[in-house]
Amino acid sequence: MTPEQYQRNRVSLLLALRASLLPVVRNLRPRPTESEWDVWVQNVYWLVHPARREQWQLAQPFYQTERQRVTGDLGPVDFPRRAYPPAALNAGMRKRIRGRLDALGENDPVPQAVIEDALGVALRHASAGGREGMVDAARHDPKALGYARITVGTENCAFCLMLVSRGPVYRSESAALLRDGTSEPYHDRCDCIAVPVFDRDDWPGRDEYLEMQRLWDEHANGNLKNWRRFIESRRDRENSQAQERAAAVGENAQQAPDEDIQQDLFDPSRDVPTADLPTEDRPLLAINPAPNPAEEAHRLQLQANADRIRREQEAARQARIQQLIGSGLPRLGNLIPDDYDDALNRESDIEQALTQIIEGRDYNGFTVTVDSTDISEDEIQFGGSVYSSDGSYVGSVERTFRREHDGTLYAIHDYLNLDRSARGQGFAEAWNGFLQTCYEHSGFERIEVHANIDVGGYTWARQGFTWANESDAVRLANLLERQLTRSETELSSMALDDPDRLGLQAEIDAAEEILQRINDEPFGSDDYPTAYEMSQCGRRPHHTGRDASWIGKRACWARTGKG
After folding, report:
1. Helix (H, G, I), strand (E, B) or coil at 562
2. Residue 84: is its pLDDT beyond 70?
3. Contact (CB, 8 A) for 385 and 415
């Protein structure tokens, strides 16, 4: 596949995605509720995710062809694909779109600029599939010198052109490439792409690089501010010259575009087969085309499905709570003593009620007994034992229920330790799921977690618990960094044809992405990695069962601290 074919196919896919996105993006409303926002983001995600995969798939033959053209090597190439969770799109849309919607009045129309910016975010996320695949492959391909950024359209800001002037990002003989590929920015509607470089004197975009390098040396003085002024003045001069030429030949003259002015990415007349062009009576790129009945029906069906799932989940939650109420079980919150005298007077009653709640239940084939209690003012703590279906002792648990001075109820999950023979069989999910229902029944407002033994950190993170404070996140990030170093050492010792090499490389890339976000994003922001994301880092579909291992799980296994 030639660079021209790659660009033509890439643009065609983006055109198709934009057309599919239009009816969904037009559905934006002022001041959406969290539920409405989540449904909208999910609908966009279902369109962006497959398009992102298509961009990744399209980049592979281009990379392979360029590699074969320059090096003559026909061998296989690792072409990793990064994980793309819905949270990534949600974070991007929140940063660019959500605040502007919340600033509107209830009956205000959504400005066209907001709609266009939402499309820009979605198209950038889709394009990243090919860009990231190209960069990651070049970063780890022993045949590649690295990668370079090239421009292919008109949305080329001064910063983009500065990056073009850098040319290939090389790697030394002994070290991997720098991490530029994991964090190099592409703005919304950016037309730049990444291309692999196998010979510094022969790669697509080399002439543009040399020209931009010359202009940077002449006009920038090593200063981006000077460079921006130069690019703006050059653009103004080109526009002025174009207007003068148009005036000279008349408004109706058909003039070929100036070679120095690049074509627009979304110009449907450029390098797109005639069969793919929109007809005059149904423009593909119209800003507000007439609603397509089939697309509108599909969108409504997606929204109805999401609403149905939420209703079913809420109904199931309420049913669990009503089952507890109907069973006559006492509320955990009512058991917590009000003061020291209340603790003394009700000690035996509280122990009996706690035993009634906990014991005699099936936790996915396991049972729990209450072995000890510590009852005091505003607090109940108990320790218990876990038994398998054959009555064998397999572990222990410890939980604390507290009331703050303002009446707020919360639970502390202090301790859970299971023998290896009992892990991965669903006890933790069943046990904590039952307790969470009890908490909802009693009006508990939060759960705090202490993951201080064995696989506790992984268990809590996998079940959706998150950070108590930033130091805990940094502590786990340090453990992930250690696992990353070990994995990189293991990768360097692997043969190039080792069947496990590609999988390990994918885990390394996933860990690098998480650590980069921890470095770049403020704690507590939408883009900061969650405990769940870190626990699942590097996990792939075949990682199932208690013996499965991946880099995020290995880091959580080693974790010590509060979760």
Report:
1. strand
2. yes
3. no
